[in-house]
Design a protein that fits this description.
This protein is an alpha/beta fold and 241 residues long. The protein contains seven helices and eleven strands. The chain has two domains: 133 residues, Rossmann fold; 101 residues, Dihydrodipicolinate Reductase, domain 2, CATH 3.30.360.10. Helices cover 34% and strands 24% of the residues. The longest helix has 17 residues. The protein starts with a strand and ends with a helix.
Length: 241
């Protein structure tokens, strides 16, 4: 595939390396330090766009790809409140979008573990349940998109909670999410069950960005001939057939 990368920070550079290792071609890189701009992306030079930018840029990037018939993969978070609007735009333009707050294969396994474990602990009200996430200081959104997805994943098994909220905004009906921002951290997510007697944690610790990059390339391969809106759940359903 001919891949255009939008956003060439640490994640974009890792995607470039992974794409080349998988036998794909990087046809274009678009970033603040490059002379290329989004209007340079055409069907003639790009089979798929992989985008890791910021909430202020992602919507325009997605719409541009829709209007030009180019599938787009995005790992940008902080825009999901506009998902319904974007889905309608995708259908209107017969476009292709694959979005995920986290492309790690291991994170999917972690989500399944978290879902099953939360169901068990729901029967033991003495345990307080909390989500904690830690990312680098450059990450704009807080909580992380992955922490929000984790909360939404386990909430159906926790009927005493009506929703999740940031810990400082919580009442007893909310599942709290605590966020930390420190330098040079790839990403840590923890599901914590704590009573007066003990504390149990289920952690996902990203050792590098390689797992995220690999997942993004797999997503690009998955949607190559597809139309519509897809997530990692669709990808896993396909490989588990």
């Amino acid at each position: 595939m001919k891949i255009t990368i939008i956003g060439f920070g640490k994640m974009g550079k890792e995607i470039e390396l992974e794409a080349i290792q998988c036998g794909h071609q990087i046809s274009m890189i678009i970033d603040l330090n490059n002379s290329n701009n989004i209007e340079s992306i055409k069907k003639e030079n790009t089979d798929v766009v992989i985008e890791f930018t910021n909430p202020d840029s992602v919507i325009n990037n997605i719409i541009y790809c829709f209007k030009n018939g180019i599938p787009i993969i995005t790992g940008t978070t902080g825009w999901f409140s506009k998902l319904e609007e974007i889905s309608k735009e995708c259908a209107l333009n017969n476009g292709t979008l694959f979005y995920s707050p986290n492309f790690s294969i291991g994170m999917k396994l972690y989500f399944e573990t978290a879902k099953n474990t939360s169901s068990i602990f729901n029967n033991f009200p003495e345990y307080k349940i909390t989500i904690e996430e830690t990312h680098h200081t450059q990450k704009i959104d807080s909580p992380s998109g992955t922490a929000i997805a984790l909360a939404n994943n386990i909430l159906p098994n926790l009927p005493n909670f009506s929703s999740w909220k940031k810990s400082e905004e919580c009442n007893e009906n909310n599942l709290p999410i605590i966020s930390h921002r420190i330098n040079e951290t790839t990403g840590i997510h923890s599901l914590i069950f704590e009573s007066e007697a003990d504390r149990i944690e289920i952690n996902h610790i990203a050792k590098s960005r390689k797992g995220f990059a690999k997942g993004a390339i797999l997503a690009a391969e998955f949607v190559a001939e597809k139309k519509g809106v897809y997530t990692m759940s669709d990808f896993y359903k396909n490989i588990n057939k």
